[in-house]
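re: the backbone from monday

yeah here it is again, tokenized this time
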């Protein structure tokens, strides 16, 4: 054994304690750390010929890279829709690496059973019936892509062919209808061979990102003769957290044949709040569903779940024939359900946080984030120089400058805020804007007030461009 490796093995208990203390120190600093540091990025070093051991690697990482890393785990990182890692999820993630399970085969099946238990808990959390079967994937992009892959196979089933066997070209042209599809949808369509141009934007309601049902029905009626149709509905759009009327869309299947995929990446968590659960009414009626867990469930990155009512079609797409794998059977191994064969036991972090805090704990996180968004929304509405672009429906505040809202001025505003808060740019109805998304378990209304104060200070310092 290499002497450095042997030394680290023999000294591992003390080394891991050093890493633990270092991590505890970082977590203690996170709330007051610069959200986006001003420290320069380090120049890349060449690969060392001789390793220096774990302790030297920790020291080098702390000296060279940590000063430039953002406080994305902290309470005022409001860009994208980024959760943190609850204490239980962090512990679960550490144990995930410690056990280093590849939950893909029933020949070594404990990891798969744990994942199925966790899927059952998530199904209950979101109010889904047992007809929905789920698997863990890496994020919303992969969740949407898997759902669309199953939809593609369903389209083939309607014509007596299998795109998984004969290729997407056997389907001919396909239409995917959506009011305000997330960017991961055309990306997935590109990967699946259906093409980005198969996505047809259906007009939305005036001043909304929710699809106009009359326009959707008109689009469905136009294509009724060929039946090559998938509808992607939104349960929480990224700009304004708008919701399509899921139950009404599902009811259209009484007159038109289509696959209903619902992108509920973070909007599904509305089901946890009695005040907002009506927003996801009808979610269980979907044929496939995307939910991103490293958003509002607050587990570490690289965790999402996809649900579908047609696991048989899912295995038709993703089955992996090899002598060392088990047969499909009634309960297929995970290797037959997603693009990956090898993957870490992603379910463990989710299992830990659900076991530790239950539905009630995660409901509290959801409702507190909504309260924070409302508080910031009120501050924006009352701030001279700022303008809300949409009502605060759930956990996102979308706003712009009251005068001359150019991309450059908004970038300057975001830059002024960077040490105190991180917000991401967007465009809504042609207007450049900023988004603040609240989904971190650490965030409190005190943080929302702090962001509001920082916004006021940044506005006063904003140059006229």
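seq for it, each position gets an aa:
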């Amino acid at each position: 054994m290499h002497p450095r490796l042997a030394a680290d093995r023999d000294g591992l208990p003390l080394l891991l304690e050093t890493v633990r203390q270092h991590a505890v120190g970082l977590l203690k600093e996170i709330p007051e750390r610069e959200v986006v540091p001003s420290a320069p990025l380090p120049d890349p070093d060449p690969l060392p010929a001789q390793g220096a051991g774990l302790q030297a690697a920790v020291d080098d990482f702390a000296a060279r890279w940590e000063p430039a890393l953002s406080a994305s785990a902290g309470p005022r990182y409001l860009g994208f829709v980024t959760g943190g890692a609850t204490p239980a999820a962090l512990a679960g993630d550490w144990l995930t690496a410690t056990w280093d399970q590849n939950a893909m085969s029933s020949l070594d099946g404990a990891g798969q059973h744990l994942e199925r238990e966790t899927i059952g808990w998530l199904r209950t959390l979101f109010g889904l019936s047992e007809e929905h079967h789920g698997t863990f994937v890496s994020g919303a992009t992969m969740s949407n892509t898997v759902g669309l892959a199953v939809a593609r196979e369903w389209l083939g089933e309607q014509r007596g062919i299998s795109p998984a066997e004969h290729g997407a070209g056997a389907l001919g042209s396909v239409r995917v209808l959506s009011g305000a599809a997330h960017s991961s949808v055309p990306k997935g369509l590109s990967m699946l061979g259906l093409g980005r141009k198969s996505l047809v934007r259906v007009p939305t309601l005036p001043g909304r990102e929710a699809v106009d049902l009359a326009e959707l029905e008109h689009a469905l009626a136009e294509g009724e003769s060929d039946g090559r149709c998938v509808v992607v509905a939104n349960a929480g759009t990224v700009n304004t957290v708008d919701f399509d009327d899921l139950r009404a869309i599902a009811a259209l299947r009484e007159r038109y044949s289509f696959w209903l995929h619902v992108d509920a990446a973070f909007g599904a968590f509305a089901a946890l709040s009695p005040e907002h659960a009506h927003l996801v009414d009808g979610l269980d009626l979907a044929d496939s569903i995307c939910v991103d867990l490293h958003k509002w469930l607050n587990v570490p990155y690289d965790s999402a779940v996809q649900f579908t009512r047609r696991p048989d079609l899912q295995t038709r797409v993703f089955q992996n024939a090899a002598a060392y794998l088990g047969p499909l059977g009634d309960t297929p191994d995970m290797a037959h359900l997603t693009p990956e064969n090898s993957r870490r036991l992603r379910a463990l972090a989710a299992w830990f946080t659900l076991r530790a805090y239950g539905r009630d704990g995660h409901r509290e996180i959801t409702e507190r984030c909504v309260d924070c968004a409302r508080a910031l929304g009120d501050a924006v509405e009352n701030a001279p120089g700022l303008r809300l672009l949409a009502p605060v429906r759930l956990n996102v505040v979308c706003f712009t400058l009251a005068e001359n809202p150019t991309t450059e001025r908004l970038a300057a505003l975001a830059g002024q805020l960077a040490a105190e808060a991180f917000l991401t740019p967007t465009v809504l109805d042609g207007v450049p804007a900023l988004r603040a998304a609240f989904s971190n378990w650490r965030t409190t209304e005190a943080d929302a007030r702090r962001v509001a104060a920082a916004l006021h200070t940044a506005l006063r310092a904003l140059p006229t461009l």
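The radius of gyration is 24 Å. The first strand starts at residue 133 and ends at 137.
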